[in-house]
Amino acid sequence: NTVMAAQMTNAHRRFLQVLMSNGITEGSEARKLHQHCCETDKVHYAHDKLDDFISTINSHLQPLFMQIRKGISEDDGRAHYAVVNLAETEVTKMASDYTEIELELFRKTMDLIILSENGFASSTDILNLADQLKTKKIKKKEAEQVLKVFVEDKWLSEKNGEYTLHTRCIIEMEQYILSNYQDVARKCNICHSLAIQSQVCESCGIGMHLPCVRKYFRAQTEPRCPKCNEFWSCDIP
What we know:
This protein is α+β, with helices and mostly antiparallel strands. The chain has helices at residues 2-6, 10-22, 27-40, 50-61, 100-115, 123-127, 140-152, 167-180, 210-217, and strands at 25-26, 66-72, 79-85, 121-122, 156-159, 162-165, 186-187, 194-195, 198-200, 207-209. A hairpin with a 6-residue loop joins strand 9 (198-200) and strand 10 (207-209).
């Protein structure tokens, strides 16, 4: 590990450390961090070379089964970066941070979100799971606290009592979700990232993130599916 790290500049190392401690970093913040690390380390900084800078780090992380991955926020379409552990792409990677009860509630919440039509689960539905847990039944008050922690730790997002998967969770658990929810999990037809909150073509079944739908149909007078060319019947956000 030390040998691998030694081949990276201090700028690369500093960038990686901040990314790991953040859990997830928004695109504009990552660009600022890139500039700051290069200037601090007095190495050449090129504003349009963030992806190359990250590729260099990734080539050193490869033997450690880790990677910096880019994903988009399903909310506003903005880019985010997170460090992913490729050796443990499952919920098991969370096992060191949470109790068995908390993990079971998370898995069940994930089920509700992914199997829902719009990528959200209401707090009422999630809290109703509290007394059905196999590990140990818990009170709704306790379950509320657990959900709060998952939101703080950026595994879940909450809006008006509705929960969805946080961008961090989608980036880190993409493989886990795609292999465990094969029948329902789909990638966005436009950006090819996992789509939880999406619109689906009624004719051919492809899905698109809401920000991608917005962007794709912006210039079109009549929205037609990019795959089958049938009329896109969902309301354009």
